[in-house]
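Contributing new records

If you add data, match the layout below exactly. Sequence lines come first and carry their own label; structure lines follow with theirs. Keep one chain per record. Anything else will be rejected by the validation script.
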Amino acid sequence: MNLSVIVFTRSGCRFAQKIKEAMEAEGNPCEICAKGREASAWGIPPLEEPLKEWTGRQFAARDALLFIGAAGIAVRAIAPFVKSKASDPAVLCMDEQGKFMISLLSGHLGGANELTKELAAICGAMPVITTATDAGGRFSVDSFARKEHLYLDNLGLAKRISAEILENRTVGLYSDFELSGQVPVELALGKRERLGISISLDDGYDPFSETLHLVPKIAVLGIGCKRGTTEEQIETAVKKVMMQNQLSMHSIKKAASIDLKKDEPGLLKFCEAYDAPLLTYSREELEAVVCEEDFSESAFVKEITGLGNVCERSALKASGRTKLIQRKTAENGVTVAIALEEYVVRF
């Protein structure tokens, strides 16, 4: 979570500094600035550009914004940039005396509600959260998806599920994964409800007439490719293998390869497109990887890299597992193997 804080009075600066110290102590980047006629004398960096320009930049670059000042200032500042709950950052507002911390925008998917509680505790403020499910102590599928790092495929259905829950109706629950903790009473596990939630890597499976798919991001791709392989060639090979295994492309968490490929343009572009970091390992690191089955060896690959198999070893190394769900497959100069990180649904 990276946060930007802006204050509009001298008295608000002490809270900004306190928040910055607490956030950075937890390893979370935090920038603070002050906007006002005498801001240069308040002890924190003054903001020279117009508030609208600053807000637009923060919306594009930050996970969260905190306005320490009047809520009206915050509302007017963010209004031109609000687009969707799926992409808007968390926006919070606190009065300059530190009495109330308000979750203003993106309470669930953006994480504003949880951040409001955290920052309120730091400042000694009262957290103010107005989303209906949270105010009523009900299950919120948006918040659950964010907490569990699940891709949520349909915001319209998520909204309908929340509406059903607020009307004291249950919605169905299906999961391919072990469930830990107490399943919320609003979710009917194993019942044939009309509307329900599916927690699965297969976003094409519909256990309910209307199914909201929540996809865990746990797929680790091991990729090998020839020099100069394009992003499109890699994507085509990966999509084919993922489809064969009934794995959503939204389940991709990261990709891995040998360090000879750390600057391969097509591979880097593919990873950027799917927001999947590329991890690379030395020959010695990959050579030490253990697999429950024998690796699929290639004399050609060994001649080039010193290893008989790159993709399988890379997938296992990056996932921390010893078993593949997909062994090496080759497609137009691209090799792909898949491992899954361990995952349990936690309520």
